[in-house]
Prior knowledge:
By secondary structure, the chain is an alpha/beta fold. It folds into 2 domains: 28-109 and 207-243, Periplasmic binding protein-like II (D-Maltodextrin-Binding Protein, domain 2, 3-Layer(aba) Sandwich); 112-204, Periplasmic binding protein-like II (D-Maltodextrin-Binding Protein, domain 2, 3-Layer(aba) Sandwich), CATH 3.40.190.10. 39% of the residues lie in helices and 20% in strands. The protein has helices at 2-23, 52-63, 75-81, 126-130, 142-149, 162-170, 181-191, 218-232, 235-243, and strands at residues 30-34, 68-72, 87-92, 102-109, 112-115, 135-138, 156-159, 176-180, 201-204, 207-212. The strands form 2 sheets. A 5-stranded mixed β-sheet has the order 2-1-3-10-4. A 5-stranded mixed β-sheet has the order 7-6-8-5-9. Helix 2 (52-63) packs across helix 8 and helix 2 packs antiparallel against helix 9. The radius of gyration is 22 Å and the shape is globular. The protein starts with a helix and ends in a 10-residue tail after the last helix.
Amino acid sequence: MKSHTLVKIIFAILSFFLLISNTYSEDSSFEISVGLLPPQVIKLNKTKPEGLFIEVLTEALENSHIPYKIKISPWKRAVEENASTNQLYYLIRTPARETKYSWITSLYEDPSALYNLKDSPTIRNFDDFKKLKNIGTFAGGAGESLLKYLGFEKQIYYCKDDEQCIKLLIDGTLDGWFSQNLKSKYLMKKLKIEKMFNKEFILFNGQGYLAASLNMSKKDQDIIRNSMEKFKKNSKYRHILKMYGAKPPETHK
């Protein structure tokens, strides 16, 4: 009887370790590769990172008991490395980026729009947009990707960050500033300049995505995807989105 009980215990222990080994990647944790990019990533520390993307992702992983680590890099380097087997990123999904990453799930709406000052004509349609000569956008960001894809490479002024674009727009160097809605609204509020701008012209109804390196296994992609879809049903997900003025993703035709 004792030997039979011992065999059952050993079998249970082996089954447990087999389950663990089949659940997570060999590296045992996922790497979130990020740089400071408000409001997606505002503050990074070991105890409580702040920002829309980083809070949604870490809460989802922790709720599903999935181990992770945060790798801090300058934003452009963070999304260009794409080397680690289980690396995760925040990206706007654009046509030019489609084949460069594995797309896990959409997180929230984040359209890309053109912003200009009230002392300039409001951009109401694509024909108005085409008349602009100097369009500032964050170098290496989704704005650059979209403008090049649409054939506006000659009109691009490459800004080191969006705050530089705003300064150059105000001093008259730029005709317009092309950026994502969540980031633009965050910066306008931070700098207290909301009233200086015309109504934005939305050029691309994009969404903020959780993306992964191309060499992440399908099994690991499914683990992360299932974790995120589960968290989207949690009230904490909508609470985080509300704090940052974001909306859940919609289906675009």
